[in-house]
């Protein structure tokens, strides 16, 4: 057998690979279109999967802490589970409807409405999270609570009407996506309403946090965490909503599900659970700090400094002074107490320095040989105790 015979047999025994169009024809139920919308959906699913794996240890810690909680599962954990797994179901159904090409007309007529319904459910849960958080930051004001109930019901009703009742199924590409029907309410109104709610609620929350920080020398770590979480939420969610509005206006004939909707689902999921995770972690840190105070509402941190007392004239009185600084955050009356207690090595010497001690801002207590001074300043309550 010569070389020409070998080449002939190789060509006919190993036919050439099929072209991409032939692959697409052989697999009609799978989308092979390399369009930007598909890339954006794949990228959003990758980001969501990475964030899920990254936050899985936090979720397990939440479950373990709730098993030891005497009141069962807290609101924080319930909202965390809802926003987490409703978002997973939403991303799954939305992308299956976009990529899968094997829907029958009857199946698509039932399937197309699932994604819009889950979309409204996700955004309502997210709005409950930030609304309940702002209500707690406002010291659970009855006026703020009433406003949120009325405003939230109005926005949720309009969002439901703008998103659920204005869709029809579309199978022009073989898949099953909801397309905006002829309606007096455009589909982009949904994103506009979501942006308005986020701006109002996060704006009120930031206002209360800034006002609360004025009563103390500097913003505490909890206040700073709440402030920056709200700021990050409003920036990311507003950017996602504006992106969807722009893409929908440029493709008004197609469904918003073919625009940046998948990116919006991922953004709502990540930013909402980020708020809940930070609140839970702050509660864990507070629980690990020392023994509880007598009223069980805060934690204490003691600092002791030793020094020798002197009179106004500068004469050494031979008094050994021990200063204990107890910092207490009392969430019930919302007070900050700072107490200085002095115990003397020579009680007779302390008695002789009563006049000079009182002039320095200390006052005698009822306990023998002990001097105390205290001051009170207002400190805001946070959403940590209520949600965690």
Automatic annotation (TrEMBL):
Give the span(s) annotated as Disordered: 353-388
UniProt-listed InterPro entries: DUF6533
Per the record's keyword annotation, is Transmembrane included, yes or no?
A: yes
Alphabetically sorted, this entry's keywords are:
Membrane, Transmembrane, Transmembrane helix
Residue ranges annotated for the DUF6533 domain, each copy included: 41-89
User: What is the protein named?
Assistant: DUF6533 domain-containing protein
Q: Which residues cross the membrane?
A: 71-90, 110-132, 144-164, 188-210, 231-248
Origin species: Thelephora terrestris
Q: Does the keyword Membrane apply?
A: yes
């Amino acid at each position: 057998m010569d070389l020409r015979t070998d080449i002939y047999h190789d060509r006919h025994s190993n036919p050439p690979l099929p072209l991409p169009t032939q692959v697409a024809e052989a697999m009609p139920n799978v989308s092979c279109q390399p369009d930007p919308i598909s890339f954006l959906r794949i990228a959003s699913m990758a980001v969501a999967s990475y964030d899920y794996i990254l936050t899985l240890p936090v979720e397990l810690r939440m479950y373990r802490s709730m098993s030891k909680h005497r009141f069962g599962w807290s609101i924080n954990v319930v909202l965390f589970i809802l926003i987490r797994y409703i978002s997973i179901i939403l991303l799954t159904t939305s992308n299956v409807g976009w990529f899968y090409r094997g829907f029958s007309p009857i199946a698509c007529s039932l399937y197309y409405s699932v994604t819009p319904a889950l979309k409204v459910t996700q955004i309502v849960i997210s709005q409950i999270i930030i609304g309940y958080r702002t209500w707690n930051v406002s010291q659970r004001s009855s006026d703020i609570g009433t406003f949120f109930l009325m405003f939230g019901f109005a926005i949720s009703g309009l969002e439901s009407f703008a998103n659920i009742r204005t869709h029809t199924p579309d199978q022009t590409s073989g898949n099953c996506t909801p397309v905006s029907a002829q309606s007096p309410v455009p589909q982009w109104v949904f994103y506009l309403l979501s942006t308005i709610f986020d701006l109002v609620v996060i704006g009120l929350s930031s206002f209360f946090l800034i006002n609360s920080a004025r009563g103390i020398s500097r913003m505490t770590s909890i206040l700073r965490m709440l402030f920056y979480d709200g700021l990050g939420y409003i920036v990311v969610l507003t950017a996602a909503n504006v992106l969807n509005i722009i893409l929908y206006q440029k493709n008004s004939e197609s469904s918003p599900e073919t625009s940046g909707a998948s990116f919006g689902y991922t953004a709502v999921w990540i930013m909402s659970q980020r708020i809940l995770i930070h609140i839970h972690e702050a509660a864990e840190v507070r629980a690990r700090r020392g023994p509880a105070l007598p009223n069980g509402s805060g934690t204490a941190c003691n600092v002791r400094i030793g020094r020798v007392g002197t009179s106004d004239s500068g004469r050494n009185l031979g008094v050994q002074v021990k200063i204990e600084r107890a910092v207490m955050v009392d969430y019930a009356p919302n007070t900050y107490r700072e107490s200085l207690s002095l115990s003397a090595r020579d009680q007779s010497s302390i008695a002789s320095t009563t006049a000079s001690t009182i002039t320095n801002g200390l006052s005698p207590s009822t306990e023998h040989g002990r001097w105390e001074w205290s001051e009170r300043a207002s400190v805001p309550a946070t959403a940590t105790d209520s949600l965690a």
